[in-house]
Design a protein that fits this description.
This protein has about 80 residues and is of the alpha+beta class. It is built from two helices and three strands. About 40% of the residues lie in helices and about 10% in strands. About 15% of the residues are buried. Pfam families: Kazal_1.
Length: about 80
């Protein structure tokens, strides 16, 4: 019985930790797709408006994230505005 209670407590703690991490880092369904159609190459504006990508890299702005997506072909989402 004690083992069952301990297992239940550990499961609840793990669930709470996962929920906390999801809220803190904006994970799960909160990812936002970058609006890359808005930006044309060859360059990006020099404005500093950092975004945190799902690759856990901070990009100076959404346009530079779009350049990275175009160069590498990876589907990087925006976790949140601001640095990672």
């Amino acid at each position: 019985m004690a083992l069952l209670a301990m297992s239940l407590v550990l499961a609840l703690l793990a669930r709470d930790l996962a929920a906390t991490l999801n809220n803190q880092f904006g994970l799960s369904s909160r990812y936002r797709k970058a609006n890359c159609d808005e930006y044309t190459l060859p360059g990006c504006p020099r404005d500093f408006n950092p975004v945190c990508g799902s690759d856990m890299s901070t990009y100076p702005n959404e346009c530079t994230l779009c350049m990275k997506i175009r160069e590498d072909g990876h589907d990087i989402k925006i976790i949140r505005n601001g640095p990672c």
